[in-house]
Specification:
It is found in: Membrane. Helices cover about 20% and strands about 35% of the residues. By secondary structure, it is α+β, with helices and mostly antiparallel strands. Among the domains are: about 120 residues, Sandwich (Immunoglobulin-like); about 100 residues, Sandwich (Immunoglobulin-like), CATH 2.60.40. The N and C termini lie far apart (about 170 Å).
């Protein structure tokens, strides 16, 4: 039986892969800010001597293009009129700097490095370009402030187009948020706190970030709680609700009075009748019924009766 060969050390097993350029490590993730610059720098073994390096770019859907190379003749651009134009430079023999970043610069950049004496190493960088994070929109609202408690709400929202992360920390990021006296909204943009006077002397910070940029905004809780004046104070929304309640009560009272007066005016028994005014005296007449033609002595009593009535008036 032939003896089994001894396994080679890891360094020796990697040599054939280096010779034929078969080492394929995962791309290194790199983030850049729109309008800024980024430096892609390969990591080489100590003592390596670079003979030549070629940089390529692929946006995923399009073809891979060679964008730069560095050799005995120095830094060269195979196609100076490509999308990068004058935005590429090599500060040393291996690193590639991209300036005035554009959103279309996102993609995979490959570096094929030829080392002395005959080694080839491939490294790649996955660049993602993001818009800069604008200053977030913040708001603090004092809900109630007493001598024992200070209840307030802090709001912090991103104003950019891209997706951002919102995180909260206490005392300039040295402590995580507690869960006993704080309540965070599901989207992470609103933080509600209930603090005692001894714990109100703290600073909470809101950080709005994406993988390439961030903005930090502090909240001075002591100044917010002091705005309540030390007594009982309510928020602006509380005053609005109280005003609406008082207005509703006033309108209800006015309507009730109007309804009561309407019912009284509609009831004839409740309407007092004014005494009839006496009209000035006018002559009164008595209807005299004439009977059939008088007979005999009946004409004289009738004439006397007419005379008596006229004298009475």
């Amino acid at each position: 039986m032939l003896p089994l060969p001894h396994p080679l050390p890891p360094a020796w097993t990697a040599v054939p892969e280096l010779l034929f350029g078969q080492v394929r490590a995962q791309p290194q993730q790199v983030s850049g800010v729109l309008g800024g610059s980024v430096l892609l720098s390969p990591v080489l073994p100590p003592g390596s001597r670079v003979k030549e390096i070629e940089w390529s770019f692929s946006s995923g859907a399009g073809a891979t293009i060679q964008v730069a190379e560095f050799g005995p003749g120095g830094f060269e651009r195979p196609d100076p009129q490509d999308r990068f134009k004058q935005r590429l430079e090599m500060p040393n023999a291996t690193a590639l700097r991209i300036g005035a970043l554009e959103l279309g610069d996102s993609g995979v950049y490959g570096a094929r490095i030829k080392l002395h004496p005959a080694l080839v190493e491939d490294q790649s960088f996955n660049l993602s370009v993001y818009e800069s994070v604008p200053r977030p929109r913040t708001h603090s609202q004092l809900l109630a402030s007493t001598l024992e408690w200070c209840n307030l709400t802090l709001q912090c929202q991103g104003t950019g187009k891209g997706a951002v992360n919102v995180t909260w920390r206490r005392d300039n990021g040295r402590q995580e948020l507690g869960t006993d006296r704080s309540q965070l909204s599901p989207d992470g943009t609103t933080l509600r706190l209930a603090l005692q006077p001894g714990t109100a002397n703290a600073t909470y910070t809101c950080t709005v970030s994406n993988p390439a940029d961030q903005k930090v905004v502090p909240f001075d809780l002591q100044s917010i709680c002091r705005s309540g004046g030390g007594q009982v104070s309510f928020s602006k929304s509380g005053y609005i609700v109280l005003t609406l309640i008082l207005l509703a009560v006033s309108l209800g009272g006015a309507f009730w009075c109007w309804r009561l007066n309407s019912e009284k005016s509609a009831d004839p028994a409740a309407t007092p009748t004014a005494p009839a005014e006496e009209s000035p005296q006018e002559p009164q007449y008595t209807e005299i019924v004439h009977r059939s033609p008088p007979e005999g002595n009946d004409q004289a009593p009738a004439a006397l009766e007419h005379q008596d009535v006229t004298e009475g008036l």
